[in-house]
Structure formats: structure tokens, C-alpha cells
Amino acid sequence: MPEQPDPVPPDDLSRGLTVARPDEDQGLPHIGLVGDTYTILVTGQDTAGKYTLIDMHVPPGGGPPPHRHDFEEMFTVLDGEVRVTFRGQTITARAGQTINVPANAPHSFTNATGTPSRLLCMCAPAGQEEFFTLVGQRVATRTQAPPPLSLDEQAAFIATSTRLAPQFKTELLPPPPND
To answer: Where are the annotated coiled coils located (predicted)?
Structure first.
């Protein structure tokens, strides 16, 4: 006789519905990071650690440097486009497209256009939002650019990011030789 699957567990009444309104809710954290602004829509606390959802405003020239991490990361381009480098190959992801970056794969993305791009990013399991909160700067709105960093502030940001990255299962990679 085949083994019966486990039943669906009962509803966890300690968890509530999460509704995120990034353009209206001033209580959402808007984090300035590498020139981008990341709004944390849904945290690991909201999802029992299963995933986090982040609204990314990426201005022209924005995007993170090469990195990798041991969690899945999915992007849906809502507006604009980004140039995504994945394991050394580059593609362009445009509005309406979704890409999934497998855990541990080296990647980066850049907005190479003259207009802002908007991405919806899901990381599973959660945790990336905590890293962003610790290394980034709070800004007032979803589209507000973080203030430019002085050379000393840039050095401190790099040092803090490098020190904290391993705790969040992230590795910051050197830029490719042609950059």
C-alpha cells in the first residue's frame, strides 16, 4: 500500500495577512543601498522565514556589484529593464519578464538605460532584508535616492558589508577584469 502524504497542517492563527502599499505606507522600510532604493514589502517575520519580498527602485547606472548567496533570488521587472550578468553571461531583462537566480550562482545586475527601473525581488528563504537593513541607509520614500557617500563612508560601507555578508550566506565577488 502506498504511503499516505502528511495532511495539510491546521491554519496558524498566530499569523496574519500582510498587505504592503509601498507608495503609501510610510512605515515600510525604504533602504538606500549602492545607489538603489529597496523597500522591504514582506519580511521573513511576516512569512515565518520562508521568503522576503523587496521592491527595488534602480536608477540609471544602479545595481549591485557581483555577488552570490546560498538562497534563491527571483526578479520580476515591473518597469524599465536591467542588464543581468549570470555566471559570466549577460542578458537584458525587460518589463514583464521574470528571472530566477539559483542559489550559489555568481550574478549582478545593472540599469544600463537612462530611466529608472523597478524590480520586484523575492528571496527564499528570508534573511536578505536583514542584511540590507544593516548595511544600507534609511530614506524617506520608495524612489528617494540615498545620499552620496564620502570616501570614508564608502570605505566603512564596504568594510561593514564584507564583515556581515558571511552571516547572511552572501559572498561579495570582485568585479570582472574589464570593469
So the answer is: none
Cell numbers representing residue 172 in the block: 561579495
Question: Does pTM top 0.85 for this prediction?
Answer: yes
Q: How many CB atoms lie within 10 A of CB 13?
A: 6
d(CA 159, CA 134): 12
Domains of the chain in sequence order:
30-140+153-172 (2.60.120.10)
User: pLDDT tens, 92-101?
Assistant: 999 999 999 9
- DSSP-derived secondary structure letter, 106: -
pLDDT for position 107: 98
Number of alpha helices (DSSP H) and beta strands (DSSP E) in the chain: 2, 12
Nearest to residue 107, comparing CAs of 130, 75, 134, 131? 75
Of 64, 67, 112, 117, the C-alpha closest to 91 is: 112
Cell numbers placing 168: 547572511
Whole-angstrom distance, CA of residue 25 vs CA of residue 128: 21
Residue pair 75/136 in contact by the 8 Å Cβ criterion:
no
Spatial separation of the C-alpha atoms in residues 119 and 152, rounded to whole Å = 30
Pairing of strands 89-94, 81-86: antiparallel
